[in-house]
C-alpha cells in the first residue's frame, strides 16, 4: 500500500470543492410549503387549531395509531407523555444515559427519578442492562431510537411485560422508522417525538404525541391543551372532568400552525425522501465495509427494519483496532480531508455525567431533586455506566440524495484516514469519548 500523506499533516485533501448545496440541504422546501405558510400568515392563523387538527388526523393515519396530538415542540410532547402515563412522585423511569436531555430530564418535574441504563454498540438501549435498573419503584422505560437506530423492541417489550412496566418511545431521531415491519412509536404505550428544524421530520418547531390508548390521549390534552380540555375531548377520564379549560400541567403546549401547515406538506413527501436518504447512506456505508476501526450503525433492511430518515448518522469507533488512535484525532483528520466541518466525535454527552442529575434542586427544598422523593439513591457510580462512557462514535455526512460520485469522495476521505492512521499516533493526547451538550460549539 502506498502511503498517502494525510491532509491534517500537510498532504492534499480528498475534497477540494464544495458539493452542490442540495446534497445536504434539509428540509426540502418547495412552493407548496411556502404557500401553506403564507396562508397562515395572511389569515393570522398562528394560534388556531383547525390546521393542526388536520395534520393530527393525517399523521395518525400515517403513523398507524388511533390518536395523534401536536405540541409546540418535542420536549413538551415528551413531558405530556410522562403525565399521560401517570408518572408521579417517587416513581423511577429508566432511560439510556446517552441521549438528548429532553428524553428524560422532565421526569424531575413530576418528582420522579431518572435511572440510567447502558447503551450497546449501536449506541442504543442495551436490553442486557435493563433488568439491573428495575426496582419495585420502576414505573416506565423511556426508549430512545437514538441516531435513528431502532431499539431491540422484542426484548425491551418482553422485559417491560415481565415486570409490568409502561413504555414510552422517544422517536425524535427516527420518525417513520420500522422495526421488523412495524412502525417505531407503535410499540410502547405512548410515543412522542420532535419535529424541530434539524430533525429528519423537520417542520419548524413542533412535536407530536401518538398513542392507541384513549386515556393517555385525554391526559395529554388536559396537561397542555387548555383550549381542548373540555367535554369534546375528555370523555373517559372522569378524574379530569372537574378541571376543564386550563392546562393541568401549567404549560401551554399548542402547536404554532405555521409549523403544522408546513408539516402537512412535509408529510406528503416524507417517506419518498427518506427512502432516497437510506439508499444514499447505505451506499456510503457499503463503501466502508470491512475497514478496521469503524462499524456502521445501521440495520439490515431485509429484516423489515430500517433507519427512517437516518437522522444524525454515526458510526461506532473502535480505537483498539487503530493502534489506540483517539476518536478526536481521527475526526480531526477526516475533517481536514473534506470541506464543510463534517465528522465530529461523540454525539451527546452521557447524561449521568451532568451535574443536573447529581445535585440540582428544582423544588428548592435543600435536596437534589433526582433523589428527593426516591427510596434509594439512584445516582449511579461511574462504574455502572463506564461501558457507555467509553464507547466512541463519530458522525458521517447526512446525504439527502443518491449522488454516487460525491458519496464515493466522502467515503474515500474516511478510508484514507483509516489506511494511514499510523501517521496520526504521535501528538494524540485527548483520549476521551468526546461529544457535546447541545448548543455547545464543536470546538469547545
Ligand atoms: C430533539 C430531541 C428532543 C426534543 O425535541 P424539541 O422539539 O427540540 O423540544 C427530545 N428527544 C430527542 C432524542 C431529541 O433529539
Structural features, described:
With 444 residues, the protein is α/β, with parallel strands linked by helices. It is built from twelve helices and twelve strands. The strands form three sheets. The protein has a seven-stranded mixed sheet, with helices on both faces. Strands 10-11-12 form a three-stranded antiparallel sheet, with no helix packed on it. The protein has a two-stranded antiparallel sheet with strand order 6-7. The structure holds pyridoxal-5'-phosphate (PLP). The site of pyridoxal-5'-phosphate has 15 residues, from helix 3.
Instruction: Please report the number of helical segments.
Output: 12
Helical residue percent?
25-40%
Mean pLDDT, rounded to whole units?
96
Q: Order of strands across the biggest sheet?
A: 1-9-8-5-4-2-3
Global outline: globular
Bound molecules: pyridoxal-5'-phosphate
Sheet of most strands: 7 strands, mixed
Q: Poorly predicted ranges (pLDDT <50, ≥5 residues)?
A: none
Q: Supply Rg.
A: 23 Å
Structural class by secondary-structure content: alpha/beta
Beta-strand share of residues: 5-15%
User: Got a strand count?
Assistant: 12
Series of H and E elements: HHEHEEHEHEEEEEHHEEHHHHEH
Distance between the termini: 36 Å
